[in-house]
Design a protein that fits this description.
Elements: E1 2-7, E2 14-19, E3 40-52, H1 58-62, E4 65-76, H2 98-110, H3 117-129, E5 134-143, E6 153-160
Antiparallel strand pairs: 1-2, 3-4, 4-5, 5-6
Length: 167
């Protein structure tokens, strides 16, 4: 609570009067995907723009629209017994391959018409979580050309791998 000074008209004294604090805007809380305590690294794909057959309206079935896709993955480190993982072998097989993720995203987007951005985002999360090393997947799907006075409209979903016991 904030106290503000208010003048007393008769004697010129000052009194303290409670005032409500203005509401502070707090950004959405985002979990840390790269986290030493949880032995996870953060793998991401940023601003992948694809043409998708998506939407519930008849005109959206007629031609594809641009969508922007962002993917964030919390991926288990190789050796979770260490507080600081040792540098691993310089081999693609030991990490989640972002090229593989992008190819799966492209395949799902091009597989056919989807009515809802929510459905597309959930399918993409499911594909990412198929790799048992992925603890958490967050996917954002945005339709870019849907409103002339908005940069985008879309959804962001986050899913966790049920096979893993970590929060």
């Amino acid at each position: 609570m904030v106290l503000a000074k208010r003048g007393c008209p008769m004697f010129g004294c000052r009194q303290l009067e409670p005032q409500a604090r203005p509401a502070q805007k707090r950004p959405m809380e985002q979990p840390r995907y790269a986290d030493a305590a949880r032995a996870t690294r953060h793998m991401f794909i940023r601003d992948l723009v694809l043409n998708a057959s998506i939407g519930v309206h008849a005109h959206e079935h007629a031609s594809p629209q641009r969508v922007r896709i962002n993917v964030d993955l919390a991926v288990a480190e190789e050796d979770q017994r260490l507080s600081r993982p040792a540098v691993g072998q310089d081999e693609l097989s030991r990490v989640v391959d972002y090229e593989g993720i992008v190819n799966r995203v492209r395949g799902i987007v091009s597989a056919g018409h989807v009515q809802l951005v929510e459905t597309l985002a959930e399918r993409l999360c499911e594909a990412c979580l198929a790799d048992p090393r992925v603890h958490t997947a967050r996917v954002r799907v945005e339709k870019l050309d849907i409103f002339p006075d908005a940069a985008a409209a879309g959804v962001e979903v986050e899913r966790r791998n049920r096979q893993l016991s970590t929060p």
